[in-house]
Write a sequence for this structure.
């Protein structure tokens, strides 16, 4: 396993031939970071993502040889965001994890921290209620704080929306103005699915020990080019939060075609 050399002030950017190779590389990085966290602190906290990105990563993590490299019984799994939809339905960000990862690896049920959206929907509560419960779950876990007081997770995996969103923090999001660690987000009208969301505060991505952003396919080339072509305000382009030293971006060739050539590239990960 080899890392690319990051350009000064930039994340480690790894470009691989195709989506399968990018997912495999992301799985290897996650497995290594979880194992390192357990060695260092006895526990590992990982916030995963929704969308189409994590499925292949889960499959790689659940298969040999990675599966046995992670002390899963010490791992806590969180979500960066979830949709206001039944947890066993296709819109839920938890479904892929439950089907592809959690059936295969022994993370104790009490350490699988789903956003309480099913519970909220069943009881007639609002997304704000679910967000407040989730923020409370994070607080009672007593994670170490970053200098701004936000909890430090060991690994935060994100996909990147074609508008530059991460978690459910969209361009122009109001989440920045509220310090709550988890927040309700009104249904977006410019991306699918157009349902309300619950999201972590964007700063939690920045505060993480290892933010990992994964993007593949030609449909992501434009936004990847924008993220690495300008130094704008993350309020306008939230994915810029993951453009920081110490973060890892794993792309395939199709998503990286507009990546400025001076930024780190590697064919290995
Ligand atoms: C969601 C996500 C969202 C997603 C990106 C990328 O609930 O929609 O968590 O932030 O990660 O939109 O989606 P893809 O992985 O499908 O490209």
């Amino acid at each position: 396993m080899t890392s690319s050399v990051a350009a000064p002030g930039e994340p480690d950017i790894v470009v691989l031939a195709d989506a399968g190779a990018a997912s495999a590389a992301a799985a290897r990085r996650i497995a290594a970071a979880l194992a390192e966290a357990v060695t260092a602190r006895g526990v590992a906290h990982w916030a995963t993502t929704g969308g189409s990105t994590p499925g292949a990563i889960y499959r790689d993590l659940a298969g040999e040889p990675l599966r046995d490299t992670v002390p899963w019984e010490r791992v806590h799994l969180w979500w960066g965001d979830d949709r206001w939809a039944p947890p066993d339905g296709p819109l839920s960000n938890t479904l892929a994890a439950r089907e592809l990862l959690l059936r295969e690896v022994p993370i104790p049920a009490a350490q699988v921290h789903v956003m309480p959206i099913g519970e909220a929907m069943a009881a007639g509560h609002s997304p704000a209620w679910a967000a407040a419960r989730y923020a409370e779950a994070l607080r009672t876990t007593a994670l170490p704080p970053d200098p701004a007081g936000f909890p430090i997770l060991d690994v935060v995996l994100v996909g990147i929306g074609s508008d530059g969103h991460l978690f459910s923090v969209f361009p122009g999001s109001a989440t920045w103005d509220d310090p709550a660690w988890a927040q309700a987000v009104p249904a977006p009208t410019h991306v699918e699915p157009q349902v309300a969301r619950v999201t972590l505060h964007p700063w939690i991505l920045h505060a993480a020990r290892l933010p990992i952003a994964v993007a593949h396919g030609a449909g992501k080339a434009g936004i990847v080019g924008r993220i690495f072509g300008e130094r704008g305000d993350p309020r306008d382009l939230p994915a810029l939060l993951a453009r920081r030293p110490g973060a890892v971006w794993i792309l395939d060739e199709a998503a990286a075609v507009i990546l400025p050539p001076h930024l780190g590239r590697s064919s290995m990960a």
